[in-house]
Amino acid sequence: GGGGGGGREGGRRDDRRRREPMPVAPADGPTEVLINVAEGVELSELGDATVEGLRGIFEGMGFGMEITISEDDKAISADLDSSYYGDVLVARELQVLSAIEHLLDKMVNTGDSEERKKIRLDCNGVRKQQDVDLGEQAVELAKRAMEEERVFKMGPLNPRCRRLVHIALRDLNGVSTHSEGEGVFRRVCITPDGL
């Protein structure tokens, strides 16, 4: 906030203040990368390529950790277990983890679209907990929308998060959801039945 005269320069300072500082990776952390395949899972060629990609990335970074990888028809998932480097990977709304996920996708999914699989990374269960929290927040907003008989719009969400909200509310009687807006400004609207 603040008084007049801030102009564009003041806005930049406010943005910097709102950004959480990036944690520093410990210099004395482990460097060995251990990758386990989840029980009962047989990896495809894409799964094997993901294992090698993960190993190369984290060994190159010097980030030792234990990784459990699983695969189904649509996705390859890797759960990273790292008390040493977890803070760095999940800082600033999973910025580093998302970048590694994107890089892995480009490394692994080089064939045609029929051979592609979604790459999903989580670290210390943080993304999984965020998904649960987002679903719970959507249900609370839906209840308020019904009580107050008005439409609630959630803040801009990425496609994955919008999908999670739609799934969380699809079986809830009394409300419907739809997305509106363009690109990064796309949001989910929660509308009580009858409005």
Could you give a short description of this structure?
The protein has five helices and seven strands. It is an alpha/beta fold and 195 residues long.
Outline the structure in words.
It contains 5 helices and 7 strands. The chain has a 4-stranded mixed β-sheet. Strands 5-7-6 form a 3-stranded antiparallel β-sheet. It is 44% helix and 20% strand. It starts with 6 loop residues before the first helix and ends with a strand. Helix 4 crosses helix 5 (159-169).
Question: What are the defining features of this structure?
Answer:
195 residues, alpha/beta, four-stranded mixed beta sheet, three-stranded antiparallel beta sheet, disordered N terminus
- How would you state the average pLDDT, rounded? 88
Q: Helical amount among residues, as a percent range?
A: 40-55%
Alpha-carbon distance between the termini?
A: 36 Å
The assigned structural class equals: alpha/beta
Cα-atom radius of gyration: 20 Å
Q: List low-pLDDT spans.
A: 1-14
Q: In total, how many beta strands? A: 7
Strand order of the largest sheet: 1-2-3-4
Q: What's the tally of helices?
A: 5
Order of helix and strand elements from N to C terminus = HEHEEHEHEHEE
β-strand amount: 15-25%
Largest sheet: 4 strands, mixed
